[in-house]
Known about the structure:
Number of domains: 1
Shape: globular
Largest sheet: 8 strands, mixed
Structural class: alpha+beta
Strand content: 25-35%
CATH superfamily: Gcn5-related N-acetyltransferase (GNAT)
Strand order of the largest sheet: 1-2-3-4-5-6-8-7
Order of helices and strands: EEHHEEEHEHEE
CATH class: Alpha Beta
Number of strands: 8
Amino acid sequence: MEGKGVTYRLMTVDDIPQVQLVERKSFTTPWSRNIFVSELTRNDNAIYIVAEVGERIVGYAGIWIILDEGHITNIAVEPNYRRRGIGQGLMDVLTAEAVKRGVVAMTLEVRVTNYGAQALYEKLGFVPNGIRKEYYQDDKEDALIMWRELGGQRTNTGN
């Protein structure tokens, strides 16, 4: 998928060095190379997407698919490329990949003070649905839990 000079595609192990640059510029507790390698090579429930401008990775996003639900693990866009629609593009591509695999609802956590991200998620149809107290280990900040129904048929899980 492309738009505004941005190409979106599935992440590969070869992308990890560039993804880590975005990760370090975006998070106070960045994931290690080993975590990314494990996600891409050992986690059959994971999908990761990158956003490229030319040959440069400027953003990425990931999701875990559990039954018919998708849990957004992370999304990051390099600071110099923010507010250009790349985050929304990543979410759109990730959602399309999840729907192909039968996902009918998505969830994520976002810092209660990250109003920019919350605005994007609300624009995409996510609604607040709870708080995880002291969720973030670096500063014990609370996380806002957000959900989005995708309109598909829910699997009966016996609950």
